[in-house]
Design goal:
single chain, about 400 residues, Butyryl-Coa Dehydrogenase, subunit A, domain 1, Butyryl-CoA Dehydrogenase, subunit A, domain 3, four-stranded antiparallel beta sheet, acyl-CoA dehydrogenase activity, Acyl-CoA_DH_CS, AcylCo_DH/oxidase_C, Acyl-CoA dehydrogenase
Length: about 400
């Protein structure tokens, strides 16, 4: 027999950090259900979906049949009930198990497409669009961003004017998630020249004359998410497709920004958690200079710092989600949670690629995918710069601001 390996170089089981603190028993079970679903339905297919540039429509039905599509939506509207924290538990499970950013964005685009209809829409709109979406039969998207406006929601120029019993819509939208596969777009339109007070939300179905997907966009990451540029050329839809009150869309959109930003924060620390676990396993399995990578102090220090940042981002994000569920106003806090988590995701993904070396730069390496996917997070849902300035004003730090 050869010499026994030193304790320092002895092989240990790969470290897999799977946080459980902060969840109730029911939420932990929901998280585990998401992870098991991923192993069964996602892991064998995700590489092909990334190559295809979209996920199959039937995946929505699969999610719905598993009871995972309507979590957080009241049962009276066709959902499965639950809180924002329940949604967080579900999606932490998905991300920890290896979902891509594009898969998450496309599979759950209804998280931004239908809340405005649920909260403010007519029974007809809810029955026509919300219930079929939650059953997995339809796919919806939200059309806010325009080529020249970006995060400036109040500056939207797509216009809708009344003509008899119809709206006539002209304009364009950019970077719209799930719009290529989508069956309808909840579209933000200008219905008055009164700035932020002159916007309305109108449901525009696919196939309406004059409404087209101008092009499917090629992106750095989020490859499994179909993202489109939309054109509205004298598009006519019934006046009854108006969501809530005319000229109230800015408030409707703003009210849902908090949950969207918490969701993006969760995606951020979820990517980071997955990258941490992939890097830890690789560093234990990979031998260099006659010993595993993890035997090097500098490598262990990187892994510890990655873990520290993941834990901080997760704790802060979930604390803000809890406070939201408790009825607190957490607009500024959601902005800061998003920045904390997405900055963590960008740094941890970068370190994971570095620890993988050349293999981390290869498309066959999962960390390479996460590296590309996380780069969108400081931009989407309000850029870090815009949200930091918003938080400064809300917290009373800007000139003339009232806390």
């Amino acid at each position: 027999m050869g010499p026994r390996p030193s304790r320092q170089h002895r092989r240990e089981p790969p470290v897999n950090y799977s946080p459980t603190y902060g969840w109730t028993e029911e939420q932990l079970a929901l998280k585990h259900s998401a992870m098991e679903f991923t192993k069964r339905e996602v892991t064998p297919n995700i590489d092909q979906w990334e190559k295809d540039g979209e996920i199959p429509r039937e995946f929505q039905k699969t999610l719905a049949a598993a009871g995972l599509l309507g979590v957080g939506v009241p049962e009276e509207f066709g959902g499965d009930g639950g809180t924002l924290m329940d949604i967080c538990a579900l999606q932490e499970g998905f991300m920890e198990a290896g979902w891509s950013g594009g898969l998450m964005a496309s599979a759950f685009t209804h998280g931004i497409a239908i809340p405005h209809i649920i909260q403010n829409g007519s029974k007809e709109l809810i029955d026509t669009w919300v219930r079929p979406v939650l059953a997995g039969d339809l796919i919806g998207s939200l059309g806010v961003t325009e080529p020249g406006t970006g995060s400036d929601v109040a500056g939207l120029t797509t216009r809708a004017v009344r003509d008899g019993d119809e709206w006539v819509i002209n304009g364009s939208k950019m970077f719209i998630t799930s719009s290529v596969r989508g069956d309808f777009v909840t579209t933000a339109c200008r219905t008055s020249d009164n700035g932020a007070h002159g916007l309305s939300l109108i449901v525009v179905p696919k196939g309406t004359p004059g409404f087209t997907v101008s092009r499917k966009l090629d992106k750095m990451g989020w490859l499994a998410s179909d993202t489109g540029e939309l054109t509205y050329d004298n598009v006519r839809v019934p006046l009854t497709n108006l969501v809530g009150e005319e000229n109230h869309a800015f408030y409707y959109i703003a009210n849902n920004f908090v949950t969207e930003r918490i969701w993006l924060a969760l995606m951020g620390y979820g990517h980071a958690l997955r990258c941490l676990n992939l890097a830890a396993k690789y560093c234990q399995d990979r031998d260099t200079f006659g010993k595993p990578l993890v035997a090097n102090q500098v490598v262990r220090a990187k892994l510890v710092e990655m873990r520290r940042q993941v834990e901080i981002a997760r704790s802060y994000t979930l604390e803000i989600a809890r406070r939201y569920d408790a009825g607190e106003t957490v607009i500024a806090e959601a902005c800061m949670a998003k920045q904390t988590a997405v900055d963590t995701s960008v740094w941890v993904a970068d370190q994971a690629v570095q620890l993988h070396g050349g293999m981390g730069y290869m498309r066959e390496s999962e960390v390479e995918r996460h590296y590309r996917d996380v780069r969108l997070l400081p931009i989407g849902g309000g850029s870090t710069e815009v949200l930091t300035d918003l938080a400064a004003r809300l917290l009373g730090y800007a000139p003339g601001a009232k806390k």
